[in-house]
Structure to design on (732 residues):
């Protein structure tokens, strides 16, 4: 009995310890963030892209004497890492990813340094159409290093098999064509829209809203999607109907954007992507080792409600965290990484050996000029200039992350049949109003 | 110092690095968390302010979080029951001598050795509605007419299927612990029972079960702690959708998605208390019964 008592007490202590460790792990406020050191002769760069080729990084080191440690972290993980490190005031990198959606948040929290004294916003704007997306309260929080935007991509071979060679310009025509494409190619569900509760679902709604000719927030950052006749409401209805009516595979309820591109479109399980990323054709669909639709896919102007719709800009930027140890080195690197020639190089100007894998598009129009017809550059450049617009009138609000969480959760639930469109819209609008009133 | 005194001090000296380590990495953050749970800590909306029970009230007013508590209770119910029952069944089977027993034992332990994330990714492929093994196998066996979407549409089914992945991971350790307990029971007891006319089922119920209760208690607590804190499997298989969300997932969402650190601290504190109380309750219950045997 005594022995059992000791065991019991020890086991009890073990349980408490386990609980305490769990607590510490869950909170993470004081946990380490994988920091690495930097010296004046080195910098750490943390972005959600693979590194440029080593030879080119070596060239940068030779030119500047700065050695670059490249840390490639998945996008979602990187956002968590940045939030954890910055809220703990801990160093984690000298230059890091600044997503368009985080600009307002980083400006308000002061987690990233304004770059205005290193880059002249006024003079750069004409060459960098999406630079404004990275400005919040007149502070430049990051330099765009790609000009990704959302596009519609189709498998022209599948469309041709259904006798469609002229691409539809309206969503109703697009829907009708997709049904024909499905029948002709034996595809039960010919369209890919991703419905997993992830950022890609929020972005897709902004894109579809743009296709319907509007934006989801007003200039005052209030909901612009509550009326059934509003583009945002119509866009959500169209997306959910496409899922419920079988245009979209049922399994997409838990599918993320990248899964859709790689396992649906690249494997020819669907014939069209509604919310694709500019650059997918070159970096995913035309890669023979992982795609069965090489040279079969093409970007098309986005079909809209009554004619061609808009495209939502989705660019990535690079900035300097406030805890950076080598700010001067980071500035030199950002200037090098975003210059016109290197931007074109990452996208294929000098051949595939110098390409940065999955890099969508250069941020600079001057880079497109250098590229000419490589990787449909001229086609994308014209869409970029004519149609790609920021998703919000005033850039991403500081409370974007909470807003996006409400968007993705509620659209997902509407598609899964757990709430109606009206309930989803009301829940998102209520969240916007709460967020605005609290700060 | 005398030899005797040095001998008395030595254990404390040897333990001190561990005490410092645990203190610095566990108790200090825990104490900090317990304090911060009563403050409003929002980097997007400073300053930090004392709010008393405000964070806790906000948590219970959130539908997503109350849903996650109910879901977590279901994860625990399925996880604890299935892992202990299956672990016992596997242990009883492995107690028998048969050819390739060592190989089977090694295979049984494999899921326990894999990281939870890897397992969730594997099961994601199994459950995949388009090309998953589960649909393929059930369809080939004519048990389903067409391919099904297993996760994300029906709450109970989603929770059970996600918890199966965790049970798959937890059960090997339970089986090993129970097997060790079974092997420590003297064979004489079973022989005496057989002489008295007891069959295998009666021998298991009257001899094995009472004597392996300490092992069952350990397995129950292990399953309880793991299933209460389920995160990886839910996140990978069902994302942050409320339908299958667990409390630990909501802690992540509250803290790092919504940047509401005060809410995250409060939720962590509640979870720690729940884990400690339930685990100690399970231990007390099972050990008391052992003492009564």
């Amino acid at each position: 009995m005594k022995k059992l008592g000791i065991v019991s007490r020890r086991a009890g202590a073990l349980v408490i310890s386990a609980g305490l460790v769990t607590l510490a792990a869950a909170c993470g406020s004081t946990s380490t963030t994988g920091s690495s050191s930097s010296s004046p002769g080195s910098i750490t760069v943390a972005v959600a892209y693979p590194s440029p080729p080593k030879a080119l990084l070596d060239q940068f080191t030779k030119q500047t004497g700065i050695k670059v440690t490249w840390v490639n972290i998945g996008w979602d993980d990187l956002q968590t890492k940045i939030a954890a490190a910055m809220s703990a005031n801990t160093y984690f990198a000298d230059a890091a990813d600044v997503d368009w959606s985080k600009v307002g948040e980083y400006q308000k929290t002061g987690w990233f340094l304004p770059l205005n004294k290193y880059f002249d916003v006024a003079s750069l704007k004409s060459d960098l159409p999406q630079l404004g997306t990275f400005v919040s309260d007149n502070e430049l929080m990051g330099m765009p290093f790609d000009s990704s935007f959302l596009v519609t991509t189709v498998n022209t071979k599948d469309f041709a098999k259904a006798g469609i060679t002229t691409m539809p310009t309206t969503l109703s025509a697009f829907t009708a064509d997709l049904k024909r494409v499905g029948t002709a190619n034996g595809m039960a569900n010919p369209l890919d829209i991703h419905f997993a509760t992830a950022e890609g679902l929020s972005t897709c709604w902004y894109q579809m809203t743009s296709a319907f000719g509007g934006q989801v927030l007003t200039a005052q950052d209030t909901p612009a999607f509550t009326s059934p006749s509003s583009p945002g409401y119509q866009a959500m209805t169209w997306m959910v109907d496409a899922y419920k009516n079988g245009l979209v595979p049922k399994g997409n309820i838990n599918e993320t954007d990248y899964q859709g591109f790689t396992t649906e479109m690249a494997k020819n399980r669907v014939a069209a992507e509604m919310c694709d990323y500019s650059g997918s054709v070159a970096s995913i669909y035309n890669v023979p080792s992982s795609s069965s639709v090489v040279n079969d896919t093409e970007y098309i102007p986005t079909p809209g409600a009554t004619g061609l719709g808009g495209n939502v800009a989705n660019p990535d930027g690079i900035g300097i965290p406030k805890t950076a140890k080598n700010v001067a080195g980071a500035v030199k690197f950002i200037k090098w990484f975003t210059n016109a020639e290197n931007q074109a190089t990452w996208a294929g100007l000098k051949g595939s050996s110098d390409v940065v894998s999955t890099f969508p598009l250069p941020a600079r129009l001057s880079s497109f000029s250098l590229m000419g017809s490589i990787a449909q550059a001229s086609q994308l450049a014209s869409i970029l200039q004519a149609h790609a617009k920021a998703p919000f009138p005033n850039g991403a609000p500081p409370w974007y992350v909470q807003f996006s969480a409400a968007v993705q959760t509620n659209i997902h639930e509407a598609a899964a049949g757990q709430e109606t469109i009206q309930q989803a819209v009301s829940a998102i609008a209520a969240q916007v109003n709460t967020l605005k009133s609290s700060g | 110092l005398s030899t005797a005194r040095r001998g008395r001090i030595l254990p404390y000296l040897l333990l001190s690095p561990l005490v410092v380590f645990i203190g610095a990495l566990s108790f200090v953050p825990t104490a900090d968390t317990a304090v911060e749970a009563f403050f409003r800590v929002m980097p997007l909306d400073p300053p930090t302010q004392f709010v008393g029970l405000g964070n806790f009230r906000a948590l219970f007013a959130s539908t997503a979080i109350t849903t996650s508590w109910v879901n977590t209770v279901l994860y625990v119910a399925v996880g604890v029951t299935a892992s202990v029952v299956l672990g016992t069944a596997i242990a009883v089977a492995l107690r028998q001598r048969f050819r390739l027993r060592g190989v089977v034992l090694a295979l049984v332990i494999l899921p326990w050795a894999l990281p939870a994330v890897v397992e969730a990714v594997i099961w994601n492929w199994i459950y995949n509605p388009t090309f998953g093994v589960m649909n393929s196998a059930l369809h080939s066996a004519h048990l389903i007419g067409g391919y099904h979407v297993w996760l994300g549409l029906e709450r109970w089914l989603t929770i059970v299927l996600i918890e199966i992945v965790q049970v798959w991971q937890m059960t090997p350790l339970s089986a090993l612990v129970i097997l060790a307990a079974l092997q420590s029971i003297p064979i004489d007891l079973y022989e005496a029972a057989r002489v008295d006319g007891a069959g295998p089922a009666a021998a298991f119920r009257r001899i094995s079960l009472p004597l392996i209760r300490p092992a069952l208690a350990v397995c129950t607590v292990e399953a309880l702690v793991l299933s209460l804190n389920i995160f990886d499997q839910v996140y990978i298989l069902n994302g942050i959708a409320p339908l299958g969300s667990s409390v630990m997932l909501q802690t992540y969402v509250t803290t790092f998605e919504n940047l509401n650190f005060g809410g995250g601290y409060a939720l962590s504190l509640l979870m720690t208390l729940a884990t400690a109380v339930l685990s100690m309750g399970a231990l007390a219950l099972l050990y008391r019964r052992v003492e009564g045997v």
